[in-house]
Design goal:
With 201 residues, the protein is mostly helical. The protein has two domains: 51 residues, Homeodomain-like (Arc Repressor Mutant, subunit A, Orthogonal Bundle); 134 residues, Tetracycline Repressor, domain 2 (Orthogonal Bundle). The protein contains ten helices and no strands. Helix 5 packs parallel to helix 8. It comes from Pseudomonas chlororaphis.
Amino acid sequence: MAGRPREFDRKQALYKARDVFWQRGFEATSMSDLVDALGIASARIYAAFGSKEALFREAIEVYESGDGAFADAALGDDISARDAIERMLREAVELYTQPDRPLGCMVVSSATNCSADNDGIREWLAEHRRDRTRSIIERLEQAVRSGELPKRTDVMSLGDCYATVLHGLSVQARDGIGKSRLLAMIPMAMAAFDAQTEASK
């Protein structure tokens, strides 16, 4: 009599899949990579998650509700906009350079270039990044309404600046730029905010 298939923890399987996709990217991750990482047969992966793409989308949700939730937490905190943005950038560096995790941001690095067959995944992640840019701009708009920033502040350009820095930190970390160098850049990035408030005095 054949033995029953070994049970597996679906949540733990998602964490393992997250790390594989985070490290290798969506397109470069094969089913054999996932079989090796999750320790279960491909048929069981399909039965549990439906498809590689469905598993990837769930893995992104796990990332964004866990490690990747730092930006929402910083921007939503009851602190000044300047402190919120600085906190967001510092926590990005901390996450993107952790020695026990893949480098960089999963949303930035896992599907920036895909074949035409996977354009849906590429665009889905691009929209996630655009959502982050919008959330930064919205936080700056709040700062204008509260008087922290002058009314004439170009919040869209300033928000685009910080989104570029945030996403650029991921690329730099992925390329092996160390934590201390990335942290040293943050005061320079914050000078763009300070220039707005100084000009109004």
